[in-house]
């Protein structure tokens, strides 16, 4: 039995970025016999196995998951994992060389931690617009500084909670979450195909916290998140922020921690019109993106 499992979920991957991710894994300082690599193919349209090389890893495999959706892909990885520690890696993440080694070290010395994460720094494929920084969190980019942060469950979502990219999880902390997904009780619609809905990683974190585990941020855990030019376009970001805000409200509502009052369906349109003027959506791309985010929040509150 290995000490750690890397779960790499992918759907119609870009072969260049996926190979960058694999190269980052190949450079890990953790001895290769201490970890396994499971690539979960989430019903991709074409077979990408010939475009990547995993022959360097003696305990690696590609596993198909026919049910479309990131939640199901991750679940497949969790269930088939043979290790006590799991690290989730997206197909556009490049882990620092000591990432896996640091994960095991942190878990070893802090037995109450259920899930941890660290820095997710940008690797832009094109020059980013000057206003992009306001939307870093929506692009799964994060740097909370150089100090460790740890939180327990306090009936709200902690700011230091790990994001999906690079999230390391103690497998015993996943029991409740796995049971919920298998029983079909999840109220979260995570990424399905090309959709931009989200919240699956947040759902995992909340279930871990509710089970009595702590979560934490550790700056020594660092990865590069590849950001292609298309993801920096205003149209894409507007759709992303809109979908993310709607999913966020629905996630909080499903866990009974939504801080905002629900609104009637008929009240959505006038709120969106008012927000158009409040955000001055016509003035700039960031303003328009912010307005679309407000619209997503209202849609979530009307349907939660």
From TrEMBL:
Which Pfam families is this protein grouped with? Glycos_transf_2 (PF00535)
Superkingdom, taxonomy of origin: Bacteria
Signal sequence segment: none
Domain (Glycosyltransferase 2-like) ranges: 5-117
Record protein name field: Glycosyltransferase family 2 protein
What lineage is on file?
Bacteria, Pseudomonadati, Bacteroidota, Sphingobacteriia, Sphingobacteriales
């Amino acid at each position: 039995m290995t000490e750690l499992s890397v779960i790499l979920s992918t759907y119609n991957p870009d072969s260049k970025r996926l190979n960058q991710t694999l190269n980052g894994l190949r450079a890990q300082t953790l001895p290769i016999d201490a970890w396994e690599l499971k690539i979960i193919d989430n019903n991709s349209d074409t077979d990408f196995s010939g475009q990547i090389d995993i022959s360097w890893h003696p305990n690696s495999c590609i596993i198909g998951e026919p049910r479309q959706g990131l939640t199901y892909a991750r679940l497949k990885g969790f269930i088939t994992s043979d290790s006590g520690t799991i690290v989730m890696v997206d197909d556009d993440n490049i882990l620092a060389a000591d990432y896996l080694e640091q994960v095991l070290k942190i878990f070893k010395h802090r037995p109450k931690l259920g899930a941890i994460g660290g820095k997710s720094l940008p690797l832009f494929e094109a020059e980013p617009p000057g206003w992009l920084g306001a939307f870093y969190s929506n692009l799964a980019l994060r740097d909370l500084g150089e100090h460790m942060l740890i939180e327990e469950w306090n009936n709200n979502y902690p700011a230091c909670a790990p994001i999906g990219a690079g999230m390391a999880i103690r497998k015993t902390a996943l029991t409740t979450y796995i049971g919920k997904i298998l029983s079909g009780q999840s109220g979260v619609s995570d990424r399905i195909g090309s959709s931009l809905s989200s919240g699956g990683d947040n759902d995992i974190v909340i279930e871990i916290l509710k089970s009595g585990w702590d979560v934490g941020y550790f700056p020594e855990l660092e990865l590069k998140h590849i950001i292609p030019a298309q993801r920096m376009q205003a149209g894409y970001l507007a759709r992303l922020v809109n979908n993310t805000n709607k999913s966020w409200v629905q996630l909080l509502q499903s866990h009974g921690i939504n801080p905002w009052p629900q609104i009637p369906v008929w009240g959505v349109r006038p709120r969106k019109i008012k927000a158009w003027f409040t955000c001055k959506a016509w003035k700039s791309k960031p303003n328009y993106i912010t307005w679309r985010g407000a619209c997503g929040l209202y849609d979530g509150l009307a349907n939660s």
